[in-house]
Amino acid sequence: MRIDKLFVVGALFVGALSLASCSDDDDYTPGAAAGANDVTFQSYSNPVMAKTATTFDVVLNRHTTSGTLTVPVEKVSVPEGWTVPENVDFAAGDSLATLTVTPSSDMKLNSDYDFVIRIPESYTNSYKKNNGEVNTYKVEVVKEDYETVATGTYDEEFFTGTQWPVTIEYSPALDVYRIKNLFESIDGVSGYNFFFKWNKETGDKQEFEMVNSDGSEASKVQAGFSYQTYGMVSYAWAAETNDESKYVDDVNKNTFGGYLSASKMFVLVWNHSVSAGSFGAGTDFIRDVKFVNN
To answer: Which of 99, 190, 203, 226 has most Cβ atoms within 10 angstroms of its Cβ?
Structure first.
């Protein structure tokens, strides 16, 4: 009998504690209500404007398509002189609407501009996120003058022994060449570009160097792919000469780097490394280079 009485008393005590935790004095706060229209931005990618473009579009979508809808646009961070409409309008039955932004006429080429706008929470869904954002469009806008000047086949010989097509672009404003997403074919990671300067001369007059996106000298950049468990691979320019007469064969013991006119290929000498140390130097190639004006 004593054990039964103790059990009953204990049960009543636990029950009292449970009731106390549900009192009006707790700190529970209900989550924000989802907007009825589920308005979001269709893309959160950084807009890239062509050299002659004067505007760029931001596309929004909504879940409920019945009736018209006018959505206010909150300007969180907009560069001086840029024009952003106060509202965006959805036509009846449409799930998409376009907001056209006009940058200032003095927008610089190849420079990133921070641009942030927002949809009021009452029009969106606070539980749906894109790139960590719910109702905020946070991007970098750039106007570029890059144009395609050549194509070729990248021959990666140090890690994978594979080849893939590449497009070489040139910016007259920066006097810089670019290959976008150079090593994307290895790990599928985009956003890691290769920039270089080249004076298009031959023989001992040739000048070729790896640079940053703004044309400044680059000592080491990330490749965008990882090697086994060692983490992200970085590469540094390791060529000792741009004189193509020093090039003998693909072993490239004289570490020539630059364009080899006789073979119509670029020779790229990299020092590959990870956070734990260096793998040493190796030579890759861009073969079968075809210039668009030739």
So the answer is: 99
